[in-house]
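Predict the assembly for these four chains.
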Amino acid sequence: MKRPTLAAVAARAGVSKSSVSRVVNGETTVTPAIRELVIRAVRELGYVPNGAARSLATQRTNAVAVIVSDPPKGLSSDDPMFSAVVRTVSRVLESAGMQVTLMLAGSAESRLRVEQFVAAGHVAGVMLVSMHGADPLPASLARMGFPMVAFGRSSGGLPYVDNDNTGGASVAVRYLLDQGRRRIATITGPLDMIASQDRLTGYRETLRDTGRRSIVAIGDFTRVSGYEGMRQLLEDDPALDAVFAANDLMAIGALRALREAGRRVPDDVAVVGFDDIEAALYTAPPLTTIRSPMEDQAAATAELLLSLFTGAPGTPVIMPHRLVVRESA
Amino acid sequence: MKRPTLAAVAARAGVSKSSVSRVVNGETTVTPAIRELVIRAVRELGYVPNGAARSLATQRTNAVAVIVSDPPKGLSSDDPMFSAVVRTVSRVLESAGMQVTLMLAGSAESRLRVEQFVAAGHVAGVMLVSMHGADPLPASLARMGFPMVAFGRSSGGLPYVDNDNTGGASVAVRYLLDQGRRRIATITGPLDMIASQDRLTGYRETLRDTGRRSIVAIGDFTRVSGYEGMRQLLEDDPALDAVFAANDLMAIGALRALREAGRRVPDDVAVVGFDDIEAALYTAPPLTTIRSPMEDQAAATAELLLSLFTGAPGTPVIMPHRLVVRESA
DNA sequence: AAACTTTTTGAGAGCGCTCTCAGTGTCTCT
DNA sequence: AGAGACACTGAGAGCGCTCTCAAAAAGTTT
């Protein structure tokens, strides 16, 4: 149960602690003979350096915190964005030798936990995922002076990687317009998130440029909110002939509402989503959507954080998008 | 940038380090006057104890590793199971005051990383998620003697929480039989996973009891494998009238293949899935499936690990399931 | 009031590692 | 051969915290 220490290895190898430390840390100024001795002792004892001692001595750590602003439980727990982002970020950071500590920050108390944890020096940097506009966390973390990035633009002006939400929405709406649709509605994401606001803006401005009016239902990026939003839209304006859902999950919900209401897609109502998650390929009919791979965005965010560690300035990155036409529009 | 230390707080408050330590750790044997002094100093300085120093001194840590056996990248990254499990586990562990360190362990090198990390004493316990049968990781970790649990039964005999895979599959097939289906196929999960094997066993045995023969396609729990599996099944036995997919994701893939082949669900072919993920409610038609909430299973797994810390024996837990009938069968 | 208990406080020795600095040994140059 | 340059090794002082143990203070008992 008790693991061997560096001193034990030194004793076993008959050399000083310093030499063992050098070998273990891959320094080159060690005689091959000593190196050999140490390596053998390490292997025989199964020595692995104690992480706490090391980071106490070096005042460094190789862990980063990935903070996901989790809604108070109840909302969809099978969010593909969560999965894609966390997985990709982990992969990239791990291959750079960093450990990922995942923290959910929905409530005030969990936010306090996060702050304490970061302040305790457990991590070298922080990544923020899916922050809502009003969240006080970014600001208080920023005050501590750690390298920090955001997945998706957030308030507070920290380095981020995002896609062109406004532009993507605009492309979606313009496509609908080009197809001859005249009453185009939208289902938005939660309006306290900048991505939602931007997508709504893209929708609104594109429509306004052609003199058409907006028809808006507010959702929260979940399937069920897309379903409910669509039902409400249908009630508000039974004559609508297209809908732009601010993400694919809500588009899936909308599709179901449309099906239940007996509307044919795309004949009666065209549907366009956003994100191009894998599920978009499996809907009936397959979903036309704006593609902007979350995996790429996540990887870029991780790399941005990594670059901060080497002193880079942290210039924001905007990922490209493109329209993927399938059968729903 | 430099954070205040315990000694700084002691100096500021005019008391000894010991007293500060006592107050910070909530010991009750401190005079109110001193406690007050310390608390004020802590607040004024914004003191937060250094985690590395603390865990070096106490030889303890409040972090646990959640190890997900991630397939070498390329497979579906929006796995709802990943999302539900990681999220739920984080929530439960965090509210018990534990930190979650997420580690992906797909390749041999990442497995080594995991071993080193655990051996370095960074964590108090380990949770294994979605282990494949041949994975050597559980055994080597077990040798280190840390509390350890598995989400889903795995080889190696460690404490686990699972659902009744065999029984669930059996219920699904029996339901299909009761509906008068006669040629019932299945699409399996990856056969190196015990859950897949068990679901296949449940399917096989139930069918065999009624003298019918199995029609099997091998999948890997992804949508695309369900799609391809279904196409192959259709080719192998065009007269099949039902399919049991070993999870909902593959059922969704199968639904698409069926649609493209012009088969009507459930009229021509009935489909039953497994898991009852949220997406099952949004397919066309909505999916009949075996419900066994992953969130509950994940929470139970986290609690099992927590119980191990208090010396409990770690008795395996089997979660209940039930058939949810919708329109696909 | 003396003797004894109990409670509270402070001193300081680690926890396991890194890293500076001094010491020893080896080479090169004149 | 002696001086200086260079390469390698070892000693030991921290890193910031906890926790044991002894000292001091306060409270009890006879």
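The longest strand of chain B covers residues 63-68. The mean pLDDT of chain B is 93.
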